[in-house]
Amino acid sequence: MKILIINAGSSSLKYQLMDMDSETVMAKGLCERIGIDGKFTYKPQIEGKAKIDAADVPMPTHAEAIKATLDALVDPQNGVIASMSEIGACGHRVLHGGMEFTQSCLVDDKCIAAIKKCFPLGPLHNPANLTGILACQDVMPGVPQIAVFDTAFHQTMPEKAYIYALPYEYFEKYQCRRYGFHGTSHRYIARHAAEFMGGDPAKLKIISCHLGNGSSLCAIDGGKCVDTSMGLTPLAGVPMGTRCGSVDPSVIKYICDQEGITYDDMDTIMNKKSGVLGVSGVSSDFRDLGDAAEQGNKRAQLALDIFHYEVAKTIGAYAAAMNGVDGIVFTAGIGENSPYTRAEICKYLGYLGAELDPELNALRGDNRYISTADSRVKLMVIPTNEELVIARDTVDIVNSL
Ligand code: ADP
User: Is the CB of 219 under 6 A from ligand 1?
Assistant: First the structure.
């Protein structure tokens, strides 16, 4: 079965076509500036087929973006399928499933109503995700649409991990609690780390460190999430590219009063102007920070130091939460590609019995150990693949219809 995977944002739409018989990517790309002037990229993964990188492709709405995608996929010369009927289903990434969704589901009226109910919890993403779903329904009538939620994997957390110490009525009235995000990535890591390590997955304690533009950690005990660092929204936890992560909540009132700005202004500052960008004043990109720090920029180095420290502290917290840890996995843009970041974080982990092998850490490649042979806790790099999780769920649900 061939599955079209869609990740729709407010003005962008990422897509990937996967052949699930071989679990390989046939084509992928990006529609940007939807509703503005439309930019379209298409990258076929089959030799001899040409890429597209075009500006000014009319895309007043997401529906035209989906149409442009389908046109490219079935193009007689550079397409990768003969007709749209080859697409068995679409899998959609949806940011927030609230408490409604503990797993992926077929999009029907009930599912759409539940996604809408979660709009207040994910005001920036959920409406855009739903727009992508509705556009696909419109352009591809009869093709099953499946919603896969970033929060679903974390729904196994115990109450003590997800209830905030606020008046309980806020949980009851507004479902104000920890949800956690990057769930599809952490779920991929949970499965593949257990497979890679061998042994009984039900007995493994794993800490998944998804370190990218947005970063979160997840404590996985016996394949199930028991805690995670993001919260009601993806702002909580470790500092990120532009997000501050967890700070004393009173900071908000204090800075609003000092600067004469509103809570909304402060929310934007904490989401878009904080994190390693805010501390360094240089960049949100870890490669830029590394370069600047090497050239002696002290605040770039400080931003990196804070990041490593906070990630290491969270690992310590999760080892405590699970009363032990067998494997620590690094994944996503930074986790997969930065030996420096991994080494700096691992400097804090000696007490756990986690010993990094510098030579293995310097190598590139797929799933691999980076700890020494006798390290008690295994350190691993496992490249994440959220699209594959979405596509697998989509196939499972379509097959069960
Ligand atoms: P997103 O959360 O947007 O999916 P990614 O997982 O792609 O983000 O991660 C993006 C981050 O990964 C950027 O900060 C980028 O600097 C960082 N990154 C990518 N390659 C490297 C590298 N070789 N060294 C350090 N950081 C890297």
Answer: no
